[in-house]
Write a structure and sequence with these properties.
The chain is of the alpha+beta class. It is built from 6 helices and 9 strands.
């Protein structure tokens, strides 16, 4: 698949990085289902639509290859939310036994993770210094204390981004998203170590300069 690069595995997880600037050919766009097509059409700016389509077509291609079916035949559902039971938890395969997966996209990149257990992935463009300070205020108290020890403004910005993608990956993995709150679970801000909330493992993912990424793998592997 053009614009799709498999990264080194992180334990049992397989990872792919997608360049979402590519304008997806019409025959590949037709693999999207009705919900994805409506979502793509809702974007006001063309660049956002191009990025969304490229990410979702790539996910379908990766899963279709794994399942031995055409990308357009991959069907999705949402698992129950662990907080309220509503149909807006983690995305999952609707009609096939297969891997757990997670998709994240930001800027010109998307990240896909496949795993034999619940998994979450997050990639983000590095925040501005102002936004980084806003995000820092929403972190776990131990994470805020770690940030207070950093004097260098650039390193502090990178540390906030590192903590944020770890946190979002974990919250996506458990299926709550940011509704759980970002100050409840410790994931750490330092590059050399991360937290392990509730038996999950967290892995930073190497991505191009200007981005941060992480994946979270649930218990059971």
């Amino acid at each position: 698949m053009n614009g799709v690069r498999e990264l080194p595995a992180a334990g049992p997880m397989r990872l792919w990085l997608i360049d979402t600037t590519r304008d997806t050919p019409a025959n590949e766009r037709r693999t999207l289902d009705a919900d994805e097509t409506r979502r793509a059409a809702s974007f006001h700016f063309d660049r956002h639509r191009v990025r969304y389509v490229a990410a979702h077509v790539a996910l379908r291609g990766i899963l279709g290859e794994r399942l031995g079916r055409a990308p357009g035949d991959v069907r999705f559902t949402r698992l129950p939310c662990p907080g309220c039971g509503g149909p807006h938890g983690r995305p999952a395969l609707a009609d096939a036994a297969g891997p757990h997966f997670s998709l994240s996209h930001s800027g010109d990149l998307a990240l896909v993770a496949l795993a034999p257990a619940p998994v979450g992935a997050d990639v983000e463009e590095l925040p501005s210094a102002e936004v980084a300070e806003q995000l820092a205020a929403a972190l776990h108290p131990r994470e805020r204390a770690e940030l207070a020890e950093l004097d260098d403004a650039r390193e502090r910005r990178l540390a906030v981004a590192r903590a944020w993608v770890r946190k979002e990956a974990y919250l996506k993995g458990i299926g709550t998203g940011l509704a759980r709150g970002t100050d409840r679970d410790y994931v750490g801000v330092r590059s050399e170590s991360s937290g392990t909330p509730d038996g999950w493992s967290l892995h930073d993912v190497p991505v191009p300069e200007g981005y941060a990424a992480a994946v979270a793998l649930g218990p059971g592997t």
